[in-house]
Design brief:
Elements (H helix, E strand, L loop, with lengths): L3 H11 L2 H4 L7 H10 L6 H13 L4 H9 L12 H7 L13
Helix pairs in contact: 3-4
């Protein structure tokens, strides 16, 4: 499941080098704390589920109905992709841990 706060935070970090430089090597707990400092509020679990879903590339029934109906992707309106995420956090899938750094 994609979390809009996580997607918005990724987009913000993509364009904010000071923020982006704080993220590599951090786990979900620390990333959610950093996000809260800049007014993006989500739980570590939200980070993990969103990053995992982005990498899985799987569509659920709701997404499939939107695609077949030609509707725009309402769940990921910012168009965050794994390649964009990797520019913000190299090895972003590795951030799906709950270990505090």
């Amino acid at each position: 499941m994609l979390n809009q706060a996580v997607l918005s935070f990724i987009s913000k970090a993509e364009n904010d080098s000071a923020l982006k430089n704080r993220l590599p090597g951090m786990g979900a707990d620390v990333i959610s704390q950093i996000a809260a400092e800049v007014n993006f509020h989500f739980k570590p679990e939200d980070w993990v589920s969103t990053v995992s879903a982005l990498y899985a590339g799987e569509l659920n029934d709701s997404d499939l109905s939107k695609v077949s109906g030609g509707a725009p992707n309402q769940q990921n309106p910012l168009g965050v992709t794994p390649s964009r995420l990797e520019k913000v956090i190299p090895n972003a899938l590795g951030s799906c841990t709950y270990w505090k750094s």
